[in-house]
Amino acid sequence: MKNRRIGAVEVSAIGLGGMPMSIEGRPEDEDRSIRTIHAALDAGVTLIDTADAYHQYADEVGHNESLIARALGSYGGDTSDVLVATKGGMFRPGDGTWLTDGRPEHIRAACEASLKRLGVDSIGLYQHHRPDPSVPYADSIGAVRDLLDEGKIQMAGISNANPDQIRQAQEILGGRLVSVQNQFSPAFRSSEPELLLCDELGIAFLPWSPLGGIAQASELGSRFQPFADVAAARGVSPQQICLAWHLAQSPVVIPIPGASRPESILDSVAATALTLDDDELATLTFG
Ligand SMILES: NC(=O)c1ccc[n+]([C@@H]2O[C@H](COP(=O)([O-])OP(=O)(O)OC[C@H]3O[C@@H](n4cnc5c(N)ncnc54)[C@H](OP(=O)(O)O)[C@@H]3O)[C@@H](O)[C@H]2O)c1
After folding, report:
1. What percent of the chain has pLDDT over 90?
2. DSSP assignment of 177-191
């Protein structure tokens, strides 16, 4: 497994996104989710992305964090090098919507609850989930800075941020911003300015929905013919080609494909062994 870096921490170049195991459409059989997380760990994945808002019903906040904690607890091997990256600043009332709450008091309470669910004294990477239009961004990020100063979190990241917000967060955190998590995929390339800024600043960039999202991931090859063509020539899946394309964008990129089946994450992880050549990259980028 190839590694990349978030702050001073080495993590697998491909992480596991936990969302499909906890929101609408999740497996009814929780054992399938546990097997998925264990398969990722067996394959050398040392980054798992989650959030307190990865749940379906209102009364199960932190469903995904609890699931991950259980899977790590029941894993037979050493998990001390696994970085669990969670998020706070959003909530789900249970009607299918996603809402923001960037008030400092909410972020503090959310972090305290995540600490308990994850069963740790300090969270490895805590990411502010999404800017709240009704709260000054500086106030939300100030709350994350306080958590960092108090040692409740080891590292701080942000998500769904534009270049100005990345620079602002970096300043408020006193140069300690380690990661930005934005949507980026063949279907959604408009986070390129943020990706380029992270490359320039040496901040990890974690593309979310890197395969196009839960509903579209299986159709990647049929929606984007160049990915199907390169995949056919290489004898691998279009999803693997897509993840190799992500990795080729910059050494700061660490894709976090979601999975709810062991086969999915095992196929995705194999992308770390692929190096695309310039012709392939040009085909994938420009069609
Ligand atoms: N910060 C944010 O606002 C935000 C928003 C959305 C997502 N995220 C994070 O980003 C992660 C990834 O995004 P996502 O889960 O929305 O979308 P995604 O990674 O683009 O797609 C996930 C789906 O892809 C399928 N899949 C994975 N690897 C595959 C492979 N090699 N071949 C075929 N299918 C494959 C999985 O199917 P199976 O379920 O059948 O295994 C899964 O349901 C999330 O899990 C979450 O951690 C963050």
Report:
1. 99
2. EEEEEEE-BTTB-TT
